[in-house]
Structures are given as C-alpha cells and as structure tokens.
Write a structure and sequence with these properties.
It is a multi-pass membrane protein. GO terms for molecular function: transmembrane transporter activity. One of its GO terms (cellular component) is membrane. This is Solute carrier family 35 member F1. With about 260 residues, the protein is mainly alpha-helical. The protein contains ten helices and no strands. It has one domain. It is globular and about 55 Å long. The chain has helices at about 1-35, 45-65, 75-95, 100-105, 110-120, 125-150, 160-185, 190-195, 200-230, 240-255. The chain is about 80% helix and about 0% strand.
Length: about 260
C-alpha cells in the first residue's frame, strides 16, 4: 500500500511538472508572439537568455567534476548551431503566423525524429507507432488548411503559410539536435550534454519518459488557445480544434507502444 502511494505521488509530481513546463512554454510563446506583434525583430536575443541561464546552472557542475569531455567539443558546437538555428526559425515564425499554429506545428519534430532515429540510430518502430505518427501528420495538415482559410484581417503583415513553413524548417533543426543529444546522452551523461547545449528538457525526459512528456507539451497548445482568444481577442477556425484532437489521438496511439 505504501509503495502504491509513493507511485501515485510520483506520478502526480511528474504530471504537475509536465503542466508547469507546458504553461511555461505557453507563456514563452505568448511573449514571442507579443514581441513580434510589437514589431520587434529579435529572435536570437530571445533565445540567448535561455541558453545563458542553463549554461550558468550546469557548466559549474561540469567544471567541479574535473573530467575531460567524452565527446569532442566540435560535436557540441555543431549541435548548438543547429539548435540555435531551429530556435531562430520558430521564433521568427511568430511574425508571420498565429501563435496557435506555431505551437502545434512544433509536433513535426516528433515525425522527423522518427525518421532520423530509424536511419541514423537503428531504432525500430512498431506498426502502431507509425500509425500514430501518420495520424499526427493528418492533424498537422489540418493546421495548414486552417491557416489557408483564415486570413488575418486584423494584421495584414501576417503571412500564415510563410510562418508555418518557418516552423516546419525549425522542427527539422530541432530533430537533428534532439537525435544528436540522444546520441550524446547514451555515449556520455546528461550533465555534460546539458552543460554544453543548455537543454533543460532532457531532465524532464529522464524523470517521466517520452509518453507523458509529449502529452504534457501538447497541453501547452490549449494554453495558447486561451491566450489567443482572451488576450488577442481573435477567433480561431474550427479546423484548428479538429487538428488538435487528431494530433492528440496520434500521440496517444504512438505513446501506447
């Protein structure tokens, strides 16, 4: 009984941490969208502080260990450049697309990761995982259709399809970076990888696994829906809600296996 209670509290903690990450991502998305709407073009500056804070937190730990890097520094340099480019493209997309579309289209990262790990790391996936990924593709296609049918009359500067293209390009960079990080974590350890790349997301992944992590991040899309409706007072095409449900179903199917 005591063990079951510990498991229940541990699961509750993981869920709460996941929602904290989801809400933080929604707030970050809102900040990026607000800055873009104000006409400020500074995508790299916005990402700089996140990398700085994580570096300040983990690099001292790495120094205290007094160990040489197990992976060459130029490997981390290449991964960092790819990751920064991904952040740049996604943040830049807020100038042209909707906050809801940008956050949901981030799920393309999962699809690229599947392809990359299949060919690069030899990971094998089941039929149900491919079915889940295919369902996500269908849902994400509805997002693009929603943006085509929903021209923004309030802000003529918006070019939704251009913004969506930037997001998808950014997810390719995220996928390359993620697969590289997975290789790094399996080769060395989390501290070295996080210290060198400034990627705090690896720590939640270690605690809860990919299932809860993916589902938790999906809830951040509902937070940004609320932001768009109540803060920006914009209407959302019904296709977006259908896309969200389809992507959620796809992630659940994928995560079950």
């Amino acid at each position: 009984m005591e063990i079951k209670m510990k498991d229940a509290w541990g699961l509750l903690l993981v869920v709460l941490l996941g929602q904290l990450v989801a809400f933080s991502m929604a707030v970050a998305s809102f900040a990026s969208s607000l800055i873009a709407n104000l006409g400020v073009d500074a995508p790299l500056t916005q990402s700089f502080f996140a990398y700085l804070l994580l570096t300040l937190a983990y690099v001292p730990i790495l120094f205290c260990r007094r160990q040489k890097l197990r992976i060459p520094w130029f490997w981390y340099l290449a991964l960092s450049l790819i990751d920064v480019q991904g952040n740049y493209l996604v943040v830049k997309a807020y100038q042209y697309s909707y906050i809801t579309s940008v956050t949901l289209l981030d799920c393309w990262t999962v699809l690229w990761v599947i392809l990359l790990t299949w060919y690069a790391l030899g990971t094998r996936y089941s039929f149900w995982q491919f079915l889940g990924a295919g369902t996500c593709v269908a849902g994400l296609s509805l997002v693009l259709l929603s943006d085509v049918k929903s021209p923004d009359e309030q802000d003529p500067r918006k070019i939704p399809l251009l913004g969506d293209a930037l997001v998808i390009a950014g997810t390719v960079c995220y996928a390359l970076s993620t697969v590289g990080q997975e290789y790094g974590v399996k080769t060395t350890d989390r501290i070295e990888v996080v210290a060198m790349l400034g990627q705090f997301g690896l720590l939640l992944l270690q605690m809860s696994g990919a299932t809860l992590f993916n589902l938790s991040l999906l809830t951040s899309d509902m937070w940004v829906v609320a932001i768009r409706v109540f803060v920006y007072q914009q209407q959302i095409n019904w296709l977006y809600y259908l896309a969200f449900v389809v992507v959620a179903i796809g992630l659940v199917i994928y995560s079950l296996k």
